[in-house]
Specification:
The protein has about 220 residues and is mostly beta strands. The chain contains 3 helices and 12 strands. The protein has 3 domains: about 1-30 and about 110-125 and about 180-220, Elongation Factor Tu (Ef-tu), domain 3 (Beta Barrel), CATH 2.40.30; about 30-110, Double Stranded RNA Binding Domain (2-Layer Sandwich); about 130-150 and about 170-175, no CATH class. The longest helix has 7 residues, at about 60-70.
Length: about 220
């Protein structure tokens, strides 16, 4: 299992030895910390839960502190003390895997688990565009600009029949909220890795804004 949380820093371009330019996205990947190891016996499935983005303890709730092992005392569970090695983290995500051997709570995960040429999937939340019409949201061509249509250039046109059906079908492409959706770009190639700065460069674009949270996994279809 190869998985990591990171922050999208932006796009740039790199040149190879022959001078060919490649557009890349720079991601600050990790360090992430294993916060929980889930097993078939206790949880019903195998997974690794990781945390990312160190923050102040006062920003966490009591339940979050207890889950991360940050409580100094615990009346119900006195054995749970601040010995897990996990710092206060802001984001928690799970990675399903059948191979949980070798993972332990408090273990740090970095970009060093990836190699040049690896194929990965990057997930993130796309930029929110607000309310948009059908031309911007779905790429409609718009109406005719002749025959008296002075105010219908960007209108969707007819959205259904009048009598035989008498309703608008579910899923009809219409104006509405655009963006702010969870998207995954598959089979991106790892171009550069800087382990000292926790940076990874992937070929192409990834979803989200600069500073947005992204999830990196090994490619499902690679």
């Amino acid at each position: 299992m190869k998985g990591l949380l990171g922050i999208k820093l932006g796009m740039t371009q790199v040149f190879d030895e022959s001078g060919v330019v490649t557009p890349v996205t720079i991601i600050q990947g990790g360090p992430c910390y294993v916060t929980q190891v889930k097993t078939e016996e206790l949880d019903g499935y195998s997974a690794i839960q990781v945390g990312f983005g160190e923050t102040k303890e006062k920003r966490l709730s009591g339940g979050e502190k207890g889950h991360l092992g940050l409580l100094k005392t615990n009346k119900k569970h006195p054995q749970r003390k601040a010995d897990s090695g996990v710092p206060a983290v802001r984001h928690l995500r799970e990675f399903r895997t059948q191979q949980i051997d070798g993972y332990k709570v408090g273990q740090a995960l970095t970009v060093e688990q990836f190699e040049l040429g690896d194929r990965i999937d990057v997930s993130g939340k796309s930029k929110g565009r607000g309310f948009a019409g059908v031309v911007k949201r779905h790429g409609f061509g718009g109406g005719m600009k002749t025959h008296g249509q002075s105010d219908r250039h960007r209108a969707p046109g007819s959205i259904g029949s009048t009598s035989s059906v008498g309703r608008v079908f579910k899923g009809k492409r219409m104006p509405g909220r655009m963006g702010n959706d969870n998207l995954t770009i598959q089979n991106l190639e790892v171009v550069r890795i800087d382990a000292d700065k926790n940076l990874i460069a992937v070929k192409g674009a990834v979803p989200g804004r600069k500073g947005g949270l992204v999830i990196i996994r090994n490619a499902a279809k690679g």
